[in-house]
Amino acid sequence: MKVNFTDNRLKEKIYQGQRISSEEASALYAWDLHDLALAADMRRKVVFPKEEVGFILDRIINFTNVCEAGCAFCAFHAKADRVEPFELGLDEIFDRIESLIKAGGTQVMLQGGLHPHYTLDTYVELVCNVKKRFPEIYLHSFSPAELIHASRKSSVTLDEVVSCLKNAGLDSVPGASDLLVDRIRKIASPNKLTVNEWVCAMEALHRGGLNSSATMTYGMGETDREEIEHLAVIRDLQDRTGMIRAFIPWSFSPSRTRMSHIPPATGIRYLKIVAIARIFLDNIVHIQAGWLTEGLKPAQIALSMGATDMGGVLTEELVVKATGIETHTTRDELIDIIKNAGKIPVQRDSEYQVIQRFQ
Ligand code: SF4
Predict the structure, then answer these.
(1) Residue 90 domain flag
(2) Residues 223-267: pLDDT tens digits?
């Protein structure tokens, strides 16, 4: 692509470390991928100058797929007829956590559907029981949608939900953001939560002292501009609270969902989004390379385009698996992948503190 005057001005702004506007971010989609990679890596060095790439030994435990939201973009919920309805008992959850601890894991992500019979007490009891049995485990669990569900079912405020869960032992919450564009949410997840509800849940979390991540599921028929709209909601929130530890983009997996007519996003799109997010989200330190949906090779390339972390080893994940995608990895494979990308692998904890370096 020929570099024009506007691109040169934008390039200058990016290389000077200045914040870019939504309009400028939209223009980055037209950039040559190589230029974008160099600019994103330069901006990565501003927020995270180390050449280390982290990963965490964790386990997602999807404890139920019974869900009253029935989102069109989800193949996991029971009504999608892809996975039999299930609810894990406490013993089954404990068994999974025990095997994680034996493997040296430190973090558990409990996530489930919006079960019609679950109230705030259900979530609080779950957290209390897990923390009583495994006080050493960091619970990075639930989602903004589950917080809103608990608040509705128990007729309490979001602040009360956060306070009860925190007192029970919840440590932080994944920011499960899907796509923060109401036009798309009306099609993909009309019964889940609106953009405004997502923001309210995240503000309540942060106000209550619980950190979070933020994510992005792109490729649901949105425009470039709408993807930037998503990033802008997250950047504005982070300006106000400063409690988002990481941003994780991944593409929508359409197979086996009611939106299967949408073609899957390409690898190039993934890399562009990682790079644009790195440049635009100047107030979030870590961008995770989403190997689970994209595959390990694109995720490895993302490490030179602004990503600083490979996320979790994720020894059990059913939501993406329900769409037919089965990517697995191990600690040793992640270490190799990171080293081959010219970086230093680091096993980290949930607060991004180093547990072990592999040099
Ligand atoms: S995405 Fe979440 S809220 Fe929507 S149907 Fe699936 S499990 Fe339920």
Answers:
(1) yes
(2) 999 999 999 999 999 999 999 999 999 999 998 899 999 999 999
Q: What is the DSSP letter of 318?
A: -
319 has a pLDDT exceeding 90: no
Average pLDDT of the chain is 93
CA of 173 to the centre of ligand 1 (A): 16
Asked if the structure places residue 131 within a domain, the reply is yes
Show the domain range for 122: 28-357
**CA–CA separation, 106 vs 198, rounded Å?**
27
What 8-state DSSP symbol labels residue 261? T
Task: Report pTM.
Answer: 0.94
Domain presence at residue 7: no
State how far the alpha carbon of 150 is from the alpha carbons of 68, 132, 144, 278, in Å: 13, 22, 10, 33
Residue 2 covered by a domain: no
Can you give the CATH number for the domain in which 215 is found? 3.20.20.70
Nearest atom (ligand 1) to Cα of 73: 1
Ligand 1 atom closest to residue 76's alpha carbon, by position in its atom list: 6
- The number of distinct structural domains making up the chain is 1
